[in-house]
Amino acid sequence: MGSRYADKVVVVTGGSSGIGRGCAREFVREGARVVVGSNQEVGGRAVERELQDVARAGGGGEAAFVYCDVTKEGDVRRLVETAVGRFGRLDCLVNNAGWHPPHKAIDDFSVEEFRSLLELNLVSVFTACKLALPHLRLVRGNIINMSSLVGRIGQHHATTYVATKGAVTAFTKALALDEAAGGVRVNSISPGNIFTPLWQEAADAAPDPERALAEGRAAQPVGRMGTAEEVGRLCVYIAAEATFTTGVDHIISGGAELGYANKSIHHRDTEAQLVES
Q1: Would residue 170 be called left, alpha or beta, if left means φ above 0 and alpha means ψ between -120 and 50 degrees?
Q2: Cβ 90 vs Cβ 135: under 8 Å
Q3: What CA–CA distances, in Å, run from 257 to 19, 99, 119, 128, 251?
Q4: 148, 174, 39, 28: which is closest to 92 by C-alpha?
Q5: Residues forming the active site
Q6: Which domains does the chain have, with CATH numbers?
Q7: Paired strand residues for 65
Q8: Per-10-residue mean pLDDT for the chain, 277 residues long?
């Protein structure tokens, strides 16, 4: 257990599983008081208990769960106000909630599906930032928005998702400019293949689940997928130590974007998809 973020207050959206859960766990391990928001009541309560056990084992940190559908402004407001009301301040907002739809061509996405994904993956980030900033400015806190590697490099049959994540990265840079004078840092993280329950679900839905997992591991030069805890440790570093860093998109991908590869869909038998929570 560490103390790099002792007694600081952190809100993590989408914190009941996957990357959000990993981030919340690492902040608690570093002594933070973490409020997890999720629209999964059962999973959220389970993570609350898990994080409380982590806090007790380490002699520091606290954890609480608040039900929150990030597409509803009232829920996001309640999440932020609960954190501030319970712990007296807010030091870090981690906007993690989001979803990756199944892969399909643009012809098969409806306009309404795209609008709904924009609400979840992008508008919710705007909402949470807007509502948290009055509190973050008081303590010169920071925001970490979860983007995606594919927002930079693209992804086959994922036009809607890639558009939302590219927008998150661009929004992060613009907000960092606006908030720098007041001492609030705003950064983003772009994960590549991080093994999460969502990745497992995608593999299970594939014709050959074991092959899908093998291709996921092979997409990185390091030969494996990342873990939610590794993303969480990067979050802690940005919040606690990267104090001269703002407006930066931090890639955590195991090198998946490096080097040349056969990219013609007309001349390949398989494709390693990037899917993350």
Answers
A1: alpha
A2: yes
A3: 20, 21, 28, 30, 10
A4: 28
A5: 161
A6: 9-195+227-249 (3.40.50.720)
A7: 36
A8: 92 97 97 98 97 91 97 98 98 98 96 98 98 98 98 96 98 98 98 93 92 95 97 98 98 96 61 46
